[in-house]
Amino acid sequence: MFHISLLLARVCVCLKRSAVLAGLLPVAASSALAADFSTLAFGSCNHGHLPQPMWSVIEQHQPDLFLWTGDVVYADTTDPVRMKAKYDQQLARTEYQRFKSVTDIDGVWDDHDFGINNGGASNPAKVEAQQLFLNFMDEPVDSPRRAQRGIYKAFTKGAADRSVKFFLLDTRYHRDSPGTGRADMLGKVQWRWLEEEIKQSTATVNIIVSGVSVMSPQFPFAEEWNDFKWSKKRLFKLIDKYDLPGVLFLTGDRHFSSHYEADVKGQVYHEFMSSGLTHYMNRVWVSRIFRFVYGDTNSYFNRNFSKLTFDWNADPLRLRFEVFDVENKQQVDKSLKLVGKRWADTGLE
């Protein structure tokens, strides 16, 4: 019943927009209908064969966009036929079909949908893997994303001072092996692309999306940008060079969701991680370590999805990060405000 009412509501919105364009509704009504981009849902780590109750939960929040933050499927193969079968399995899930029919979806991949656990540039099937991933995302056949090497992409939602720009990074296609002094995450072409997109951004909020954690300290047997210190340093140099405002990081990968903040040369940055759509961290000793680092109230270790909500009418702009469990109960709640060009806790100026 909810699904039908949601569809009817969206049809009504489309009809009203058509009436505005035809001059049948006043301008004041049209400005009200030109809704801000206000609600983003995101998640990662999704096995096609496991129960998938989260899609109906996410749908109830009616997000303006859902972003995959990696591990869309668990292919773990360099055989394109087997990889396609994994994507087809997910597309065949009725829960996902229903969600997909009423929600805009985009996102990035990580190692398991890229084809090799912890994999990088040496993956022999990365060309085929890219096209299969883009097929899954319904990327148009004439999209530049199809012709380039890697799935990176940038786009903007909203307008003027109520705009959000997304930078979807590919941290797999060109990725070096970690450990060397100049180990690279992105590759020369993607770095040039990223600098140009940052340089051109006029958005109030700029969200950088990565399959692996950007801000996390190094952990053994885990992956993060701190394994590629040269690349991480270069990323923050670009942010500083162009004084990019309202920077946030969205990530996945770790089978739990969290808010994490860290200082980079005197500036505090915030990362929101969402992981565990179908499975989650169940090793007690590992979760205890992560709880110690991320904090009990900032993290959740069970099946979940995450949501960002922007309050554009607040002065200054407010952002709310929430994590919801399979019963749609809120498990994490963190609010920030935009002070100048930087995010701060709501109790701080």
CATH class call of the largest domain: Alpha Beta
- Work out the helix count: 11
- What characteristic shape results from the CA principal axes? globular
- Supply the CATH architecture of the largest domain: 4-Layer Sandwich
Low-confidence stretches: 1-33
Would you list the SSEs in sequence order as H and E? HHEHEHHEHHHEEHEHEEEHEEEEE
Task: Tell me what portion of residues adopts beta-strand conformation.
Answer: 15-25%
Helix content: 25-40%
Q: End-to-end distance, in Å? A: 45 Å
Q: State the CATH superfamily name of the largest domain.
A: Alkaline phosphatase D (PhoD)
What structural class should be given to the helix and strand makeup? alpha/beta
* Spatial strand order of the main sheet: 3-2-1-11-12-13-14
Radius of gyration: 20 Å
Task: Kindly identify the CATH topology of the largest domain.
Answer: Purple Acid Phosphatase, chain A, domain 2
Count of folded domains: 2
Number of extended strands:
14
Tell me about the biggest sheet?
A: 7 strands, mixed
Average pLDDT level: 90
